[in-house]
Queue: 2 jobs
Job 1
Amino acid sequence: MFLRITWKISVLGVALATAGAPGQAGAAEADAEGIAFFEKNIRPVLVENCYKCHSAEARDLKGDLFLDSKQGMLNGGESGPAIVPGQPFRSRLLRAIRRSGELKMPPKSKLPKRVVLNFTRWIKMGAPDPRSTERARPVKQSIDFEESRKFWSFVKPTQPSVPEIGDTAWPSNEIDHFILAKLEQNKLTPVRDASRRELIRRASFDLTGLPPTPEQVTGFLNDPSEDAFEKVIDELLKSPHFGEQWGRHWLDVARYSESNGMERNYTYPHAWRYRDYVIESFNRDKPFDQFVKEQVAGDLLGRGKRPPTDEQLIATGFLAIGPKPLNQGNDRLFSLEVIDEQIDATTRAFLGLTVACARCHDHKFDPIPTEDYYAMAGIFRSTDTLYGTANSQGNRQPADLHTVAASDDDRAERIRRHNSELRKAKRRLNSMRDEIEELRGKRRASSDDKASLRRLNRNLKTLQANVTDLEEKEPGANYAMGVRDGKISDVPVLIHGEIRNRGNMVERGFPQILGHVKSYPIGSRSSGRLQLASWITQDDNPLTSRVMANRIWKHLLGTGLVRTLDNFGSTGTAPTHPGLLDHLALRFVGNGWSVKSLIREIMLSRTYQLSNDTDDTNAAIDPGNRLLWRMNHKRLSAEALRDAMLATSGRLNPRPADGSLVAKLGDVNVGRALRELAQLQRKANDHRSVYLPVMRNAQPEMMRIFDAAEPSLIVGRRNETTVPTQALYLMNNSFVVGQAYSMAKRVMDDTESNRDGIRLAYKLAFAREADDDEITKAQKFMASASGEKDRPGQWTLLCQALLASAEFRYID
Amino acid sequence: MNDWRNSITRRDMLKSVSAGFGYMAFAGLSSTHAASGSPLLPKPPHFRPKAKRVIFACMRGGPSHVDTFDHKPALARDNGKQLGKYRNRELMASPWEFAPHGQSGLMISELFPNLARHADDLCMLNGMYASVPAHPQSFIELHTGSFQFVRPSMGAWVLYGLGSENQNLPGFISLGPPSNVGGAQNYGSAFLPAYYQGTKIGEFNRPLRTASLRNLSNEHVTGNLQRKQLDFLQSLNRDLLARKRKSSQVEGVIESYELAFRMQSAVPELMNTGDETQATLDAYGIGNRATENFGSQCLLARRLAEAGVRFIEISQGNWDQHRNLNSTLTRNCEATDQPLAALLRDLKERGLLEETLVVWGGEFGRTPHAKQKDGRDHNATGFTFWMAGGGVKGGITHGATDEHGIAAVTDRMHFHDLHATILHLLGLDHEALTYQYAGRDFRLTNIHGNVAHDIIA
């Protein structure tokens, strides 16, 4: 109703204006005619059907499009100008009301043909529109970055004062002040401290993903010194297993995988180098800022004449190991998908920002305009991604790889293997040629002969390609996935993310919301990755340090201070302890981005050392333990569960695996290689789980069942499900039965009596003593299970029950 | 206000008492109610549903619509002509005759004589289209709504939205899915929690006879001994629970073992069709080489539906007839016609068809013109799906392709619309069924999807 009144008034206004306007008669007449046409046939339709969503009065403006002014129509909205005067068929508005494209307007009802014809005529006339004198609307509501930067995660962390607390005797370090203050405010009291037994099992799993050995337990229990736990922590931090455990956490975030996944799935036989790089980096406590820099721009870190090291090249594998639609024949579309994936991984892994949401429109919730997405897209468009993959019919996008040096002893062996492979292939090629010659020479070829000739010719081609491939490869060289700078260019905004819908060019750069972080100009000769890396790792980047400190906290305490680990935007959750998060972030940076130091500090807090006991009063106030009045009941990851079984049975091979089984498979289609993989796995399967092959859509069964990270996604926090398929696995799978059997043998070999055997089994499985009740119960079970005199059988049943129990799978 | 929701759940529970598993299933259901509230328990839909479950007969390869369910007289008339747009390609009339069937007079080709008898139950969706005419992309889009990104599959969304009616069986089962064209992604859960992912039973295009769930039995122990072991294991778990006094995690573990143990007997019981009459086996074409494989899938699908499994997918491959259309399409239709007809009749006789939505279709259709004689190429611009039961109108045609069957022109339905409609029939609003991940709410239909209200009974 209101709209209609407005319209009538303005009609009146326009009528007065035209009546009083002097000018050349002819033109004025035409104008007047056009405007009359507009007033009669166009404006009422617009008011009636369009203004509700496309005017200054619209409650919820759609598509950034204003149809209530001439300028608004010319400027258009998200998808471009609404009309092109004189050219009806290039006018989006017309296409929409004719409902001939994707966009159909008005959404609910079709306009009558007559009306559509009127619009066509009007645009042909040049779209005369008196509303030019009426107030033009702003074309686009722009983001107020100053205002947006007040959101907590964009504000640079400042050293918070350590909160006042009542019970000053309780804290062990500053972290505890922050925790206790919140507990006291909410009338919560921390539960008892964990016992030393509980503590050492917890620390050992948290830092190495392995249970403590009985000797480690005894050593800690018998150490009378004050700093006994500190010594335990330092010992564990020094273990090479630390990097395997914490490296795996990072590999979750880095969506590490050894195949491209998606519709045609090919192996990445060189991906494992990145895996080993990550493990090594955590073991050496490489400063996290350097770790990030290497992954984003390691290939650009050479100085002067010194080229980047192999390690730096391998690090850039981070940008290359993502899922890729290799069957995509359109190069540009393919490249856009790769870029999108790189933007997503980079911004969420390091910054907790979901920039990829802004591909098709401005971010709906966070201050990230589409231009920012394309500013980053330019950086990755100027980058070549090197991921190799098989030359095959289904792979339309094979790529190059980095060449890295091989170690010397490795090298001789590789050259030998390469040459023998080449020799073999050539020999096969020759004999195949002979066969073909022979068949061709036959006077009377049977239909069988013809068929084999066709088959041979086909195989010949593949083999020929193989030989060429081998000849081109440098014998003894090693390959790694990664990136390098390519052809440098900016990219245009693609409106609605559509490849044919180009908008303005955007200069390469970084999300403006973090414009208050120092950055270096990109210039025209580099992709901008180096600048991106240095911008991400500025000490005062408010996100990088907070995001990583929060990840570390999560792995130790069970939940993040910010629960949405990869999303620090407005759809994420706010920190439960903002002051503590800032404190940790600043300590992290202050200690030279040392991951180990931060871990140490957190583990030395009394908060970390609380027991997992429950408490009714506390539970009534804070049932989810958000404020940490006790330790969360953490579950072993899929990897830790498998590794703990291997360790308990005594079958664990503690040495790092040499490469990966996927490397042994070579460049192949995953689906076709599964059988061979299963055969390979039968031979050597006792290394730690981090070294198992991780291929997309083909994860090892146990990893898949026990919630290992989905390798196509960026996973800061894994799902934790408890389902019957897990129980079935633990009850019936031959791997578990095998471990139980080995554990049984170990127990039988090392002890004389049933009683001692049961004791040892409990110690191995739970790192604690069995009490008398438990021993009696176990003895009774074994007796009841002795239909025959099969001692190993009885022990196996007992050991399997322990391995399958809740106590084994959870950490107190 | 929520009365109908409660009554549905109650009815479901009573149902599972009377169906195959009897008391055990009922006890299982009620005990889980008492326990921590498993995410797979039945959940109320958004509104009153028409269907409770889905059987999706997935025809991998892209079946030709103009030779089966989309009758095109103009194609016969213009046989051999070249269309301006497609040079070197001649329109090819269907070598098969179409005839009206049932009271509705639905036109179905002679390739499906048995299914044709159910014409009045079929809802033909002749205006389907998809985004890409390439197998892997389109197959994944059909299953997950996106060929660009890794997203949860349709069955996972349904399970997430509705839970399962039977806690002794997986709620989403895919029988013999293909291992290529996306493989596990097509029944995966992506960012949804893993308990919503589909469980694969059997291998693609291989007989179901030997197939089963993995890890269902332990060859080293007898059932009796294993029960003793489980009792001991559960006593360990209960001791831990007592020490902890309260722990939903430990409770969850205890529950999962009981469920697993029941599954060990429930699944083989279900897979073993020994209790079916010879007449039933014959009806599905089991025992006949041509129909054995797909017939066993259809029969098992009915047994799973009866047991309350929420989403069941069955597969038949080799519809990719670039060559030898005459012989191979005949073979494919022969392999599936009788089993599909038997499935519909069986469901109907058991009163299950009205609450079970049967969906048939592949990743796209085929072109009415071809480069080769006796073959048709990929066509994503227009093809046919059909539905039956589950609250859709029978004996109707919705949507149409142009006169030759090249492109969908009226009441066009994209896979997104198909997804929206399937969810709607199950009582789920496709715009409200969301899951938050990576900073935004995701849907099966992304930002698309229109429900085809016209087909709903």
Job 2
Amino acid sequence: MAWLNGKTVHLAGVHPAIEAALKAAGAMISRTQEANIFIHIAAAPEHVPAHKQSHEAWRQTLDSGLDQRFLQANEFAKHCRDRGAGGVVLFVGAPEQSAGVDQAAAAGALGNLTKTLGVEWARDGIRVNSILTHRADETVGNLASYLVSDYAAYVNGAVMGVDDHD
Amino acid sequence: MAVPSHHIVSEPPAFEAPPYPPDIFSGQTVLVSGGGSGMGLAMAKAFAQGGAKVAVMGRSLERAEAGAAEIAALGAAVHAMNADVRDPAAVAAAFDEAERALGPVSLLANNAGANFPVLAENISINAWNAVTRIAIDGTFMCSTEMVRRCIARGEGGAIVNNSAQYIWTGFPGDAHSAAAKTAQATMTKAMARDWKPWSIRVNAIAAGFFPHASSTNGDAPEAIAPLQNMIPAGRTGRIREFGWLSALTCTPLFGGMTGQVIVQDGGESLRRSLMMPDFVPPRERTAGPWGWQ
């Protein structure tokens, strides 16, 4: 399927299945903000019980799982508006309750941020969605490619997983 | 009010360019309940575009046949039949009939539903039973009927349920459907758990507003125009994009996905402002329980 022919994806983070699916769908991968699509992938933290988490480790999960996502999405959206073009943002990360309190906070906040930005930027032609899963298979790659394609033009503010056991 | 011209409104590709190859469902049969018109017909056409054989089930044979004719025009093998999804014997007979005409059914779209604006106190017991049982019992009957047959054949399968974007918020003025559509979403997750060992996947679309010929106000441009600007996406949904996402969840492309409820509503259910118009109880809305203009 040529879902993403002619599109450039700014891919932040590492997810081989998503990268492979994006390329198979015809997308160009870029590491800069000059793109039609911004995908931010955050690695899942280890599960450390809340009372044993250091402030440093806590901050690291919140920084990569929430703060950096917000800041970089904001920057991407500004580029889109400056160009007078729409765009797509997709956040990918681990499910809310799949690790410790740090991940619960980051993913919970991210979910409602997704819903908020999806509406706030809707009339800029910018859609915002999230996939929360541990999985790294072809389905995740295809789901990500679908969500950033024009076929998902009416999917905005959606937070989904892949399997309830993920 | 029209969407201001400086706003950007995204559109999906044309109907002739579905998001999967024309043989992705090759050799498989899908049964679509309520498939003769509206959203069910859109699902049926989307499966047909992927090469599925399509059993169109409706309460009215005439309507099922009308829908089947549109699907046949796409080049798909199709069979129209009628059944009441609340009647287990009728559902079993319909699966028998579909299998005789088209072969074993391994794909199912639970779309049958009824919905109309009405105040809760004015919902008759008949209306309550009809709306809730067509969606809830119907989804249970059709899904379990297909899955028993798949398990007996040793084959996997996929189910997609047509739920609604108002399942998380309630829908004042539409109590029967608010209850029914949420049950379909929660059932989606429970059935997905139960049937994972048999490689039978179950997902749902929490659909927003996709006008079609049998919508309350139809799909004429003058009926849709006043609705475009109320939706964050700047438009109502195009029925093909709902059909495509529904079918896509049943393809091998999404072969690892199960138990998901995907909202597809252009952000409609997420609209919120700190300041909103005064609250008017559905009973006192001048344009009726849905506030439909």
